[in-house]
Amino acid sequence: MTESRVQSKGAVEARAMLHTSPHLRIAPSVDIIMRNVVWAMLPICAFSVFQFGISSLALIVTCTLACIGTEHLICRLSDKPSTTRDWSVAITGILLALTLPPSFPLWMAVVASVVGVAIGKLFFGGLGHNVMNPALVGRAFAQAAFTGPLTTWTPYLAEGRFTEFIPSTLTLPFLRPNSITEWLAHTAPDAFTGATPLALMKFEQVSTNGIQLLIGTTAGSAGETSAGLILICGIYLMIRKMADWRIPFWILLTAFVTSGVFYKIDPNLYPDPLFTLCSGGLMLGAVFMATDMVASPVTPLGVVLYGILIGFITVIIRLFGGLTEGVMYAILLANACSPLISAVTQPRIYGAVKPKKGQP
Known about the structure:
By secondary structure, the chain is mainly alpha-helical. The chain is built from 16 helices and no strands. α4 (88-98) crosses α5 (106-118) and α6 packs across α16 (327-344).
């Protein structure tokens, strides 16, 4: 056989080997995944700014920069290379801002951002080691430390929202937030009561139209009002296989079924399942927070149990707790249970024999 034929035969065999399975594929790197999550959240941020104006924009920018600055500074003080380039800390800042009221004072947002990154992430060793979602750790701290500002709401599509800040936004540190009563007098619609759909339902048994909740024409946190937009952005990540669809599926299904049971018992007292899914921060939490790759289980059965736990606890807190919202605490509790869930639901290794009693 001539040398040319040998080379030709070798090339054919090489091509045949390349076209047979299995193949090893390189998974997307951390920074690519995180960057796509940021892209997916940008429409939510844009809609928030459209709804609430420059105060919402300032809140999102402040939280993001504060989180990035905190992580960079702590890395430098620890003589470690900065980890801000993996985009994960940017996600923390954006998510934290989206869970806060548009009128939240910026200095309080900085404090919550520092706590979320320093204690919720870097205290445990950084990305890949944090037990809980850092954005929710910062939000939980704000809930405890700044209860008043965290439960102060402003109307959507207020006049002058693009030309002036909500008065409380620029409150100086350690001073009482500026009153927004006069600002509301000339910016709020006559029907605005200062309550979110969840508060209206819990304390006055007044339900909000499902279309309003899907579109986002209600008061609420900066990025939690439009359930439909959040779901669309989440579907983008699921199609790209950068978010586990099973987690939001089981959360929403469990919340739907649980709330449906109570609605059947007393429809005048308890909200209908569609209201439960589309109101408050359930959609944002299910799609962007509970799916945290670090703080969620890794086993197939564990993912199901994790989602069921979050959905059930959310509804129970909403219906019977003192707070109007329960998503944050439900996810944090499930994050804490995640290592146990993964350990208990580990599948048996193929071919492994279960040891008999008395044997190690």
